[in-house]
Structure formats: C-alpha cells, structure tokens
Amino acid sequence: MTAWGDVGVGDELPVLEVPMTATRIVAGAIATRDFMPVHHDRDYANVQGAPDIFMNIISTNAYCCRFLTDWAGPETMITRLAVRLGVPVFPGSTLTFTGRVTATERREGEGVVEVEFRAANDLGDHVTGTATLSLPLDARV
Amino acid sequence: MADDSSTLRDRLDALIGAPLGANAEAVAPDPVNQPMIRHWAAAFEDANPVYVDPEAAARTRFGAIVSPPVMLQTWTLPTPTITGMAERGGSPVETTGESPLKVLDDAGFVATLASNSEFEIERYVRLGERLSASTVVESISEEKQTRLGPGYFVTWVTSFHDEAGDVVGRQRFRVLKFKPEGSGA
User: Domain A4-136: what homologous superfamily?
Assistant: First the structure.
C-alpha cells in the first residue's frame, strides 16, 4: 500500500516478473475477448510467420496496470497509460516490469504521480511507457 | 508512379477525421459485470480488491466495485463469429467499410505492426454500466522509410462513452502499415 505522502521522485517500483506460458497468453486473450488466432493457435501463428502464439496488446495493458497498482494500491486511479510497443511476448520467456517515479505533484484534493516503466524479456523491450496515477492525499487504506 | 502516389494520398486524406470502418460505432454487448471482471483479474493474477471484493472496494474512494480501466476496450469489442475466422484473415468479425487500413492493403502496404497505445481515463466505470465506443481516424503520416520497409503510420482514437454520452476514457492507437522488405527479419 502506497500513501501519497511517502512517494518521492526516483523511487523504484517493486519489480514484477511474469513467467510466460501458453496458458497465461491464452487466458489473457480470452479474458480480454481478443479472439485473433495468433494469440491462441500456434499453427495459425506459424503460418503468419511467428514462431509461436504471442500475447495480445490488451493483455499487455492489463499487466501494466497490475504492475502499477500492485505498488500504488487499491486507492489508485490510473488516469493515463501510454506505451510504445516493441518485441513480442512468446511462451517460455519471463516478462520483467521495472519502473520509477519521475514526478509528483499535489493538485486539488489529489496527489499525482508520474511513472516511467518498461517490460522486457529475452528479446528486448516489449513495452516502454509512462503512466499518470492519482492518489487521494490521505490514502492509507 | 507519382500519379498513383498522389491518388493514394488523396484517398488517405479523405479518410482522416472519418469513422474507422463499418464497426467504428460499437455498443457493448453486455453491461460492465462481475463475472467478466473476475475472469480478467484471474487471467492476470491482479489482486487489486477494487475489482472483485465489494467490501474492500466500498472502503476506497471508488465506494464500490469498478472495472479495470483498460478493460474499456474489452467491454466494447464485438461478439466474435468463430466460424470462418481463419478465412477472414483472423478477424473475429466481418469487417466492411472504407478504412485507411484497407486502402493501404490494396496499395501493397499489407503488413501491420502495432506501434503505440495511449489510454486517458476520465473515470472508472461500475457494474451495470452499458458502454459504447466510437473510433475516428486521427492522422495518417507521409510515406516513411522504416527498417521494416516503406510504410505509413495510421493513428486512430476510440472514445468510450457511458449511457449519458459522457466520455469515460479514450484510447489512441497507432499502427505502421508497411510493405515488407527483404527476408522480413
């Protein structure tokens, strides 16, 4: 649980490591209602030139949100999430999220936190991004 | 050659500001609901209690269960038609209507690479809300030489609305439509 008053520029977010499996990728695709076959059918992915199924972008965004709120807690409102997409996520790799606080600002009734982060695997950066979080000034649930 | 190119540019310019294809206006098939949120939270092992625990959610600023913010896209996706999906090139539904993606496909820029996603969230939505989405083409770049081959960056913006018509969030999405060069490596 993170309280707004305890957040400082340069703070590192706890690392999130997600060991990717076909099950995880398919579970994400179906939970996000993304039925594109490249996210659940390896034969289809192979025909498209990919070595295996790969994670869909809605799942990427979902993991980014989890990474942010695992740290910032249930009072967090994510008001902006901007990612640049890089290498794919295939089964068998570990996706590792790292990030740090780049700015904090007190606004009317809320504390605003800017975070920059990346999620990388053995191929390189899957995403690099920035997010804006809003926390209540007295957040300590 | 130059003539073809200017014709392509004219066709692309005519689509900037227009809805993206025939599915540009979407009404969520179901209201925001707990079973789908629980499924989502389980798939991503997201333990944030505001998604699944009514009592814990009630103690937060939200006051009740809320949807994961980036689930806006999921709520408003069309119900897939499983039959014929491979024949449709993997598209879960029949796609029709004029769109820059189709125009670029027809001009030989057949490959697609997603490049950026930017969500802006105005508020978190609650159980029972019925959302809708509208998608508009925001910009189409000049032809660029990328390391994958020549291509165009196409950017669209989806606005997510509640039943009152108020915007609850937006997603800006950018893809590169390109002509694959070399071995495709």
Answer: Hotdog Thioesterase (3.10.129.10)
Q: Give the one of A58, A78, A83 whose C-beta lies nearest to B73's C-beta.
A: A58
d(CA B51, CA B70): 12
Grouping H, G, I as helix, E, B as strand and the rest as coil, residue B100 is helix
Residues of B in contact with A35 (CB under 8 A): 80, 82, 85, 92
- The beta-carbon neighbor of B48 closest among A32, A57, A69 is A69
pLDDT at B88: 84
* Least CB–CB distance from A74: residue in B43, B49, B116: B49
- State the complex-level ipTM: 0.96
**Residue at A120: amino acid letter:** A
- Find chain B residues with C-beta within 8 A of A80's C-beta: 118-121
Instruction: Verify whether the Cβ–Cβ distance B45 to A66 is below 8 Å.
Output: yes
Q: pTM for this structure? A: 0.94
What residues does each domain of chain A span? 4-136
CA distance B65 to B39: 14
Domains of chain B (ranges, CATH numbers): 2-32+68-178 (3.10.129.10), 33-66 (no CATH)
Query: Angle CA(A80)–CA(A86)–CA(A89) in degrees, nearest 5?
Result: 100
